Amino acid sequence: MLNFRNLPAVPFLLCVPASLALLEGTKLDPNLVSAAHAESQQATAQPVPTGAREVPARSIPVPNTVSPQMQAIIAQPLNSSWNVVPTTVEEWKARVEKAALGVMAELPHLREALGVTVVPSAIGGVKVFLVTPKAIPARNRDRVLLHLHGGVRVYNPGEAGTREAILLSGFGGFKVISVDYRMPPDFPFPAALDDAVAVHREMLKTTKAKNIGVFGTSAGGSLVLTTMLRAKMEHLALPGAIAPSTPTADLTKTGDSLFTNEMVDNVLVSQDGFIRATILLYANGHDLKDPLLSPIYGDMHGFPPTILTSGTRDLYLSNTVRVHRKLRAAGVEAVLQVFEGQAHGQYNRDITAPETKEYNDEIARFFDLHLGR
């Protein structure tokens, strides 16, 4: 077992740390950065297919069926940077750095409020953070969660990537290993996937697979799924359960809610613009339908029990629904929960909102039901 006992003593999902402590690896061609910028700015107009609906302009009220805290989050304006695309490596890093500062400022309060400690370490040659609650229930003492953070493939390196791990560790009473995986612009695909699989492989040497749970949101949710696909390819034991929330499971702009919730989701706003640029930057010229980039196209037979989460205003609601249906078709036990009125990842945005505790309690309950069985 990994020994956590002897260790030394919320803005948007799009967040990162103050320092870019990137690992060594393959460098991205700077020309690809310019290409990603150029393609993301191209017009996307296409012929209107037969049966397409023209929807009149309308005002969408904030639902009164959610908590006051969540109403305030839902009422916020669209993310103003959704269509602002960096044109150079330096601009990408500056944007990541700026976002990091806000997250890092929040983390001390978050750790204190939830009674969690975070310690840097390394597993299998990969940088990680060991996230430990002050009190670990007896049923969780042999269980370890593997966390893969979100952030549209480019945000959240370093300690800023631990926010979600802190929440589930604090609310659920789990030991968590949060992976500080490598990312663009310096380290495109498959660096992040290589790091996630390396940590999982190393964990299997000290922890029974049935006692491991894997979770992550957005790009992290997709990485959870691609890690399962790679683990199957490499004949590694799969964990006892997984929780990929609002996963970016299809990078090809396929799925109903990418159109119905465009300009409704105030976090992501659209898959065009900035998000499109991060997709191209991360993919580094690979086919976007490669299952290790877009896991919806992979074989999900034999996956562990899975809980998926989204919201009715989430741009990636269809990604989440499609993964759920694919898992069910493959005979996998899969639960889908959809939160009222919420855009991308907002159910984990404010620790004072009852929806945030509800979300983390649901994930913890699912892991409790399946880990060690």
Describe it for me?
By secondary structure, the protein is α/β, with parallel strands linked by helices. The chain has a single domain, classed as Rossmann fold, CATH 3.40.50. The protein has 10 helices and 8 strands. The longest helix has 26 residues. It starts with 29 loop residues before the first helix and ends with a helix.
- Written as H for each helix and E for each strand, in order along the chain, the element string is HHHEEEHEHEHEHHEHEH
Q: CATH superfamily, please?
A: Alpha/Beta hydrolase fold, catalytic domain
Number of domains in the coordinates?
1
Query: Would you count the extended β strands for me?
Result: 8
- Count of helices? 10
Measured between the Cα atoms of the first and last residue, the distance is 17 Å
> Percent helix among the residues?
25-40%
Strand order of the largest sheet: 1-2-4-3-5-6-7-8
Shape by Cα distribution: globular
Fill in the CATH topology.
Rossmann fold
Structural class, from secondary structure content? alpha/beta
- Percent of residues in beta strands? 5-15%
Mean pLDDT: 90
Low-confidence stretches: 1-26
CATH C-level class is Alpha Beta
Major β-sheet, in short? 8 strands, mixed
Radius of gyration based on Cα positions: 19 Å
CATH architecture: 3-Layer(aba) Sandwich
